[in-house]
Amino acid sequence: MNRKIKLCLLFLSPLLFFGGCSTHTRYVETSGPRTLNTTEINIQDFSYAAEDMIKSLLASGALDKAPKQPAVLAISRIINNTTQQIDTDMLTKKIRIALNQSGKALTTTTMGIGGIAEDPLAQSMQQEKDFYADKKELQRMPDFSLSGKILEMRDRLDDVRQVAYIFQLSLTNNEGLAVWEEEKQLAKQEKKGVFGW
Amino acid sequence: MKKATLALACVLMGTAVLSSCASVNTVERETPVGTRHVITDKRVITDETLATKVNIIGVNDATTPGGFLQIQIEVLNESHSLQEFNYRVEWFDMNGMAINTPTSVWIPRQIEGKESLTITAVAPTPTAKDFRVKFMENVRDN
Q1: What is the ipTM of this complex?
Q2: Could you tell me if residue B142 is inside a domain?
Q3: Quick check: A94 contacting B, CB < 8 Å?
Q4: Do the strands A144-157 and A105-107 form a parallel or antiparallel pair, or are they unpaired?
Q5: pLDDT, tens digit (0-9, with 9 covering 90-100), for A75-119
Q6: How many domains in chain B?
Q7: Residue A159 half-sphere exposure, CB side, CA atoms within 13 Å?
Q8: CATH of the domain at B8
Q9: What structural domains and CATH numbers belong to chain A?
Q10: Does A104 touch chain B (CB under 8 A)?
């Protein structure tokens, strides 16, 4: 009897051991409350920042001041001044989509900083069309440009570490005046664990 | 000796309780100049604890100069301690169809004890006519 129990335990223990080592992967809603949270800048931070920016921009009515509706928007430089390598499209794309859906602004993909178009093929197509149509006024110029900066501030007191991210955006009209500006700040705190960070 | 230990424990527990309860005092104009367009709301409460901590005082709406529906929800933390919660706003068009937007996310907020907080949201399109706001306790492991 004793031997039987021993054999049974010998058989079951590897199962228990390896069963505990298996990984479980599941999908989570990227816009949901169960995404992972770390002090690094992550997907939900861009969503929170974009949500606040869009809310402010639409409520301001700044885009309604364009002479022709919907307004044409060009994306300028979004400077990443954080310690992390991030693609600023994480922020600007959300804003572009929301503006497009709102019907208040359309983004040009044929104009960019230094004459580099976001979509070179669309730029060629447009130039060719304008050439054959013999248009005098070649392209509708953007009414506004969107520029900004993402900043990072780090603080530490005893065993608590704080990282703050500051999202700044400016909407400038074609007279060079910033007609809308907004800032969104996000701060995250992390408490030091027993065995370090 | 036993009495002294008991008294010390009581003092320590009292201190611990009081130190975690930092509530907010407020002051405002007795008769507000601005008038809110308060709307009648329908509430579905499935989490009574959350409803006590983050009590919805009222909802009012307005329209932006660009024709977007704007809503404001005033919530009050009925407890004496800091509470964490998430909220999400959903928008619906004239036909009751949900409007998908990249900015429709669960947003985390903190509210101090006895603090009132205003949450604002702007509709993503001028076609949005109705809304639904969801509240949820913080489910992230911190």
Answers
A1: 0.79
A2: no
A3: yes
A4: unpaired
A5: 999 999 999 999 999 999 999 999 999 999 999 998 888 888 888
A6: 1
A7: 7
A8: 2.60.40.3230
A9: 38-191 (3.40.50)
A10: yes
